[in-house]
Design a protein that fits this description.
Layout (H helix, E strand, L loop, with lengths): L1 H6 L18 E2 L7 H6 L4 E4 L12 E2 L3 H10 L3 E5 L5 H11 L3 E2 L7 H11 L6 E5 L2 H11 L2 E5 L8 H10 L10 E2 L10
Parallel strand pairs: 1-7, 2-4, 2-6, 4-5, 6-7
Antiparallel strand pairs: 3-8
């Protein structure tokens, strides 16, 4: 209940030292995020976006070494939770099962309800959780509302939606052209159930 009440108000920056952590605010990819910096900052849980953070929403590209990074996070004892605004439930369910990470979809980010449910499921306070995602207006804003640390990763290449054509360059960072990009062969993984 305390988490939900806090989420209704802007974070109290004086009470919490969330913004003083040594956690970088941006990274070009998921695998480039250093675990030592997370754990040294007291992070015990990760809320992670699916679309264009782990895998492009058209299932064409996967963030390099993302699966190995997630496996390492689990090995270190970090709790993970996927929040996705994706409307294709079967697809989010597939990735949740494949990665063995619980998920909420649609999460309706940046609204705080799904963030609060994820933190309650992980049994962690906001100052112990980092949110990782590609969009300022959903992932990062949602983290800010509930008082979590955050890291914005570069958005994997994907067909732009109408709003991304208008404001995408302001809320997302394009994936660097000089960085490795893994193509994902989905074959027939995602049959609509």
């Amino acid at each position: 209940m305390k988490i939900i009440l806090r989420a209704l108000y802007l974070p109290n920056f004086i009470e919490r030292n969330v913004w003083e952590c040594e956690i970088p605010k941006q990274s070009h990819s998921l695998a480039a995020i250093n675990f030592d910096r997370l754990t040294d900052s007291g992070i015990q849980g990760i809320i992670i976006d699916l679309d264009n953070t782990i895998i492009s929403e058209d299932d064409r590209y996967m963030s390099p070494d993302a699966i190995a990074w997630i496996a390492q996070a689990k090995k270190l004892g970090l709790k993970l939770f996927i929040l996705s605004n994706g409307k294709r439930h079967y697809r989010v369910r597939y990735w949740s099962d494949y990665l063995d990470i619980p998920a909420i979809s649609p999460a309706k980010k940046p609204f705080p309800a799904a963030f609060c449910k994820a933190m309650a499921a992980m049994e962690l306070a906001p100052e112990r959780v980092v949110v990782i995602g590609d969009s300022l207006h959903t992932d990062i804003l949602g983290a800010w509302i509930v008082g979590c640390s955050h890291i914005q990763v570069a958005s994997l290449p994907h067909p732009p939606r109408w709003w991304e054509k208008l404001i995408g360059k302001y809320v997302q960072t394009a994936y660097p052209v000089d960085r490795e990009l893994w193509e994902f062969q989905s074959s027939n993984y995602f049959k609509n159930n």
